[in-house]
């Protein structure tokens, strides 16, 4: 990609999300989402390959449909209530349509099919942007209109998402697909708490973004996209095997690690609101996620590739890729649990 | 009531042209019916009084973008395109018309033939140039929005060029 094009797309990615976050008017919020979608496409097709082009087309078609539905909901709301303020989604039809639209944008369960398909075909770093940064704008809109969203639909979407996120990833051998299913499952966790306590949803998204960024950066260092190739990771960089193990445990929300914090708080909030069955179902279906994270951990950390090593030992030499971001991100994504009160205070705006 | 009848006729033709491209003929005819449906949509908008908006939509979107980009691109793909007389497409049209009938049957009691009362005065003439007011607002206090919209269009052309450029 030419540097000018890269500059244009990256600036627009930042501009789109910022526009959505800063806007109080539905039109500008919608424009921000559109800018985000368009700016993402060249990043997806960058190594010009038919698989990545296919992914970009799938992404574009899904997002265009979602944008069209969103515009329809906005116009319906403006028609019925005579105003365009973002927080005033008081029309019932518009609110239901908006819930479904944001579900498509976030890849929640009945509309989740594009997420694994798109993530599978694009490069690792584009996948990282797709699964992290692209979630910020829709979640922020959902956060702002959370009192007027339809709670039954949201809860159904959320439970279905955690179930499909856990179930779909079970038999996958490709890391990007596994991370896509993990994203679906985590979006389910974000959405289940949205009508009850939106600040916790933001906290959950924040921690999910940090952990996923760590994993994608680690995988990008070794350029692995299959579980099988992870068995040679020790040869590329031995500490990375430990980092992947800890980060995946955290993503699977095991207690002493960061990932446990949002799950803990969400489960507590659900139980406090008498949603005990929902809480149980969510916790059980996340165990499926933990199972396929364990398979990655087993291959990357606990075993070696069953042949003699044919390549040079690369860990002895200086890395050509920058690893500056990986250690701090690993620390944040594994050791934040004692700082739970601080995080809670940060997100209780 | 003359205008109301016009709008009713245009709406009917609009639905028919939706059936025409939803039944998936070859892209050439699909593009053609898309252009026709777009033109009918503009005609509805014009009939309801927003003459400026309808004209701009027709000239820029359908005249420029849809015909030049979509239609010519579709023309270049096939030598013997599949039209509506093909078996599968005809079956598709039949199914869609049946679906329309069903929907019409179910919503018949609930939906009246919609006319926007606010757009007509007592003798049935429409108020003129509400849309011109909107345009002047867009160029006046909505200038920043216009800049963002321009940025989106610029970005879109860059993205399209970047994608179709191929390997470097």
Overview of this protein structure:
- The complex is a heterodimer of chains A (349) and B (168).
- By secondary structure, chain A is mainly alpha-helical.
- Chain A has 16 helices and no strands.
- Chain A is globular.
- The relative contact order of chain A is 0.09.
- Chain B is mainly alpha-helical.
- Helix content of chain B is 71%, strand content 0%.
- The mean pLDDT of chain B is 76.
- Classes of the chains: A mainly alpha (349), B mainly alpha (168).
What's the arrangement of secondary structure elements?
The complex is a heterodimer of chains A (349) and B (168).
Chain A: H1 3-22, H2 26-44, H3 50-81, H4 92-106, H5 114-121, H6 124-131, H7 133-144, H8 151-168, H9 175-192, H10 198-222, H11 233-236, H12 238-251, H13 260-272, H14 276-302, H15 326-335, H16 340-347
Chain B: H1 2-22, H2 27-47, H3 51-75, H4 87-107, H5 130-139, H6 143-164
Helix pairs in contact in B: 1-2, 1-4, 2-3
Subcellular location (chain B): Mitochondrion membrane
Family (chain B): Belongs to the complex I subunit 6 family.
Enzyme class (chain B): translocase
Average pLDDT number of chain B: 76
Q: Characterize the biggest β-sheet of chain B.
A: none
Indicate the structural class of chain A: mainly alpha
Q: Round the mean pLDDT of chain A to the nearest integer and report it.
A: 90
Helix content of chain A: over 70%
- Poorly predicted runs of chain B are none
Signal peptide (chain B): 1-22
Catalytic activity (chain B): a ubiquinone + NADH + 5 H(+)(in) = a ubiquinol + NAD(+) + 4 H(+)(out)
EC number (chain B): 7.1.1.2
GO molecular function, one term (chain B): NADH dehydrogenase (ubiquinone) activity
Précis, in short:
By secondary structure, chain A is mainly α. Chain A contains 16 helices and no strands. Chain A has one domain (86-307, 317-347).
Q: Which tags fit this structure?
A:
heterodimer, A: 349 residues, mainly alpha, 16 helices, globular, B: 168 residues, 6 helices, flat
């Amino acid at each position: 990609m030419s540097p000018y094009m890269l500059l244009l797309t990256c600036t627009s990615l930042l501009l789109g999300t910022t526009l959505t976050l800063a806007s109080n008017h539905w039109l500008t919020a919608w424009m921000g989402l559109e800018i985000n979608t368009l700016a993402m496409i060249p990043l997806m097709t960058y190594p010009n390959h038919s698989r990545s082009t296919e992914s970009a087309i799938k992404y574009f078609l899904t997002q265009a449909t979602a944008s069209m539905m969103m515009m329809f909901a906005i116009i319906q709301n403006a028609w019925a209530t005579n105003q365009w303020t973002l927080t005033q989604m008081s029309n019932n039809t518009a609110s239901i349509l908006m819930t479904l639209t944001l579900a498509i944008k976030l890849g929640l369960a009945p509309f989740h099919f594009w997420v694994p398909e798109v993530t599978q075909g694009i490069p690792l770093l584009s996948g990282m942007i797709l699964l992290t940064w692209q979630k910020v704008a829709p979640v922020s809109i959902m956060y702002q209109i959370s009192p007027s969203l339809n709670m039954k639909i949201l809860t159904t979407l959320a439970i279905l998402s955690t179930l499909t996120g856990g179930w779909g990833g079970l038999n996958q051998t490709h890391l990007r697909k596994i991370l896509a299913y993990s994203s679906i499952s985590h979006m389910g966790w974000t959405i289940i708490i949205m009508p009850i306590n939106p600040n916790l949803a933001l906290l959950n998204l924040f921690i999910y973004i940090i952990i996923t960024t760590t994993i994608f950066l680690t995988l990008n260092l070794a350029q692995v996209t299959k579980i099988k190739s992870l068995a040679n990771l020790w040869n590329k960089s031995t500490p990375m095997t430990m980092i992947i193990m800890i980060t995946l445990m955290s993503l699977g929300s095991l207690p002493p690690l960061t990932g446990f914090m949002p799950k803990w708080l969400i489960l507590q909030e659900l139980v406090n609101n008498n949603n005990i069955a929902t809480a149980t179902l969510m916790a059980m279906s996340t165990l499926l996620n933990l199972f396929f994270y364990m398979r990655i951990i087993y291959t990357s950390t606990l075993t070696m590739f069953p042949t003699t090593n044919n390549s040079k030992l690369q860990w002895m030499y200086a890395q050509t890729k920058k690893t500056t971001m990986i250690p701090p991100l690993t620390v944040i994504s594994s050791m934040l649990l004692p700082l739970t009160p601080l995080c809670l205070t940060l997100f209780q705006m | 009531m003359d205008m109301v009848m016009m709008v009713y006729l245009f709406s009917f033709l609009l639905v028919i042209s939706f059936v025409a491209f939803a039944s998936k003929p070859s892209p050439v005819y699909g593009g053609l019916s898309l252009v026709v449906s777009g033109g009918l949509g503009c005609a509805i908008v014009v009939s309801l009084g927003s003459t400026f908006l309808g004209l701009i939509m027709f000239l820029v979107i359908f005249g420029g973008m849809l015909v030049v980009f979509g239609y010519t691109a579709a023309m270049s793909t096939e030598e013997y395109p599949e039209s509506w007389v093909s078996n599968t497409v005809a079956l598709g049209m039949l199914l869609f018309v049946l679906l329309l009938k069903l929907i019409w049957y179910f919503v018949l009691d609930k939906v009246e033939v919609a006319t926007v009362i606010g757009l007509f005065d007592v003798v049935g003439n429409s108020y003129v140039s509400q849309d011109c007011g909107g345009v002047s607002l867009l160029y006046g206090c909505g200038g920043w929005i216009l800049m963002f919209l321009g940025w989106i269009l610029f970005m879109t052309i860059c993205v399209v060029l970047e994608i179709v450029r191929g390997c470097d």
